[in-house]
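Justification of resources, computational component.

The compute hours requested in this renewal are based largely on the per-chain cost of generating structure records like the one below. Each record pairs the submitted sequence with a full structure-token output. That output is archived, and it is also reused by downstream analysis tasks.
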Amino acid sequence: MDLRCPKCNSNSLKKVSLAYQEGLYQTEGRTRLRAVAVGGGGPDLVVGRATTRGSQQSALSKKLTPPVKWSYLKVIGWSVLVFLSAGWLVFYVNTVTTNATTVSSAPLTLFALISGAIFALLLFLVWRHNHSIYRTQYAQWDQSFICERCGTVSQRTQDNISC
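The structure output for this chain reads:
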């Protein structure tokens, strides 16, 4: 199978997933400390241990990052935060303007229904992205190649494969 770059016609192509992995660097360092300290209370022994982890990523690797799934947890967390904040505002405005002592009111009920509908819509959009759009994007990313000569990212198709 002979793959060629559509821009410069070079055959020096590398799979995007491989180029992405080559640009990731993980480091881990461990240190230990043992010391004797002498102070006003007499001698004391100090012992400590630490682990440091880090990562670096090249600019090319960042450019070739694979698509990601959307998080259900983030949608739920932000929805709860917005619902409580806006719900408190609706409750406060309704209570102050009408001098009502009851919590149940038409604006608050309407707000709860609209918030529930928006939350359900957001969950549906995340589900649709994760089960449809993400799979398509990931398949395209997985079949892409980068030219090591000119940097063009291209997808493998039947037109540029010659046996």
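DSSP finds four helices and seven strands in the chain. The beta strands are 2-3, 13-15, 24-39, 42-57, 144-147, 153-155, 161-162.
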